[in-house]
Amino acid sequence: MEDWLPVYLPIANLSVNGLLIVALGGLTGILSGLFGVGGGFLTTPLLIFYGIPPTVAAASAATQVTGASVSGVFAHSRRGGVDYRMGAVMVGGGVFGAMIGALLFRFFQSIGQIDVVINILYVVMLGTIGSLMLREALEAIKPDMIKKRSAPKRRHHPLVAALPMRWRFYRSGLYISPLAPLILGVLVGILTMLMGVGGGFILVPAMLYILGMSGNVVVGTSLFQILFVTMVTTMTHALTTKAVDIVLAGLLLLGSVMGAQFGTQIALKARPEILRLILAAIVLVVAARMLFGLGVQPDEIYTVAPL
């Protein structure tokens, strides 16, 4: 199979099986269509497993997330599912966070520890997110959990209520300080820069349970923020870290666009709680594999650094 569509990645300085990279992008696209996540949080670890340097994997994966978010924003915008005022505040925070992330990226790169930092961040993040999703999925599958329960009242976190300078976000049905979504945007921007993820799997729960946003605008507003922040992240990586491999990003984007269509069709026929259980298992397996990799001497002891 290594002879199928051999492709040279100039930044990674590596020859790869082009069809396999497209298939990897297709896999993350299917996950995106199935579970409503960008797939970036799995793209980077899978690329690392394949042998792509973590720096190049993280920087190039952000480009794929950008492309995957465009159609989602348009779809949600047509049905009024985007709070543009809230999204603009989070985009501003995300751009600032991306700048901070770029400084951190260059610092860890300069001391030769960026690969280790990326791996540790993924182990912590995937382990936490996967455990929470697994617990939620198992509770949803239990027979005694199927009984009708009154939905908890939506409200923002007390810390958010204590912040000054309140604005009205009419589409979200909120009257809160813009500092809360601004800070949230900064944190997601830093993660996007360091890890090549869109941050939707963190942003969506935070928008629901911390900001208290209306559920019908959460996904669309999250995609709006992710779209612009990943664009800035990709340009920042290209200009500063020089770790974006455009060939790799193009192959991933091609696969993800096709895979998302299949994932959407499957999602229409499958039980949501079963899908969440499967995704949680995948996330935990990837986290365990990365944790194992941190304790084993790598095949290549050097990292990629710009000239």
**What is the helix/strand order?**
EEHHHHHHEEHHHHH
Radius of gyration: 19 Å
End-to-end Cα distance: 33 Å
Shape: globular
Give the low-pLDDT segments. Answer: 144-152
Mean pLDDT: 75
Tally of alpha and pi helices: 11
How many separate domains make up the residues? 1
Sheet/helix structural class = mainly alpha
Assess the beta-strand content as a share of residues: under 5%
Tally of strands: 4
Task: Give me the secondary-structure topology.
Elements: E1 6-9, E2 14-17, H1 18-35, H2 40-50, H3 54-78, H4 84-110, H5 114-141, H6 158-161, E3 167-169, E4 174-176, H7 179-195, H8 200-209, H9 215-241, H10 246-267, H11 272-294
Antiparallel strand pairs: 1-2, 3-4
Helix pairs in contact: 1-2, 1-10, 2-3, 3-9, 3-10, 4-7, 4-9, 5-11, 7-8, 7-9, 8-9
Describe the overall structure:
69% of the residues lie in helices and 5% in strands. It is mainly alpha-helical and 307 residues long. Strand 1 and strand 2 form a beta hairpin. It has a two-stranded antiparallel ribbon with strand order 1-2. The chain has one domain (6-124, 168-270). It has eleven helices and four strands; from the N terminus they run E-E-H-H-H-H-H-H-E-E-H-H-H-H-H.
